[in-house]
Design brief:
This protein has 190 residues and is an alpha+beta fold. It has one domain. 17% of the residues lie in helices and 31% in strands. Strand 10 and strand 11 form a beta hairpin. The relative contact order is 0.17.
């Protein structure tokens, strides 16, 4: 048994973000499983109801390093995005109700002055269980065979497109966590 409890950085960041989106004053609580062997669950959100019962949704977090793209040497047919994430395809566990795809980035990596934690940004997409299963089954290379990876590209949090795992670039901006928090609320009965 480990003598110290730790939490992965993406889970910590997203737990804090969810606490702001779903505040305690409205009856929500964000929980972290204490066992690292808890299959398919990285976070849970509980909403206490007036009748004394509670509703729970479970979340799994997949995180990616974010890669900064170099400036192109010549024009390309596709827009060159500044940042890219790379995820391995995975088997979608039935234990998770929602999935968060997380990629953290530094908006200005050339900055030389000290920065605080709040300076870093993340690009986080929210998928339902059903959406993630469909997404995983559709991951294809440009040639049409099954792709073992998928990824997203973006310049900032205003526009996100799929750059790997699809034959064409698809816009995923509408799946950003802040735009889809209402799905969590609905699943929790609000």
């Amino acid at each position: 048994m480990d003598p110290v409890f730790t939490i992965q950085w993406p889970e910590f960041i997203l737990a804090n973000r969810l606490k702001k989106l779903l505040p305690k004053s409205k009856g929500y609580s964000v929980l972290v499983p204490t066992s690292r062997q808890e299959k398919g669950i990285d976070l849970a959100i509980v909403r206490k109801q007036a009748n004394g019962h509670s509703r729970v949704v479970t979340l799994q977090i997949k995180s990616s390093r974010t890669y900064a793209q170099t400036a192109p040497k010549r024009k390309t047919k596709n827009e060159r995005l500044r940042f890219h994430t790379w995820f391995n395809r995975f088997k979608v566990p039935k234990e998770a109700d929602f999935f968060l795809l997380f990629g953290m980035y530094a908006p200005d990596a050339a900055r030389t002055r000290r920065v605080g934690v709040e300076w870093y940004r993340d690009c986080t997409l929210l998928f339902t269980q059903k959406e993630m299963k469909a997404f995983m089954s559709q991951c294809r290379t440009v040639g049409g065979s099954r792709d073992k990876m998928f990824g997203f590209g973006f310049n900032d949090e205003t526009r996100v497109v799929q750059t790997r795992g699809s034959r064409a670039r698809k816009d995923f901006t509408g799946r950003l966590l802040d735009k889809r928090a209402h799905l969590l609320k609905r699943a929790l009965g609000t």
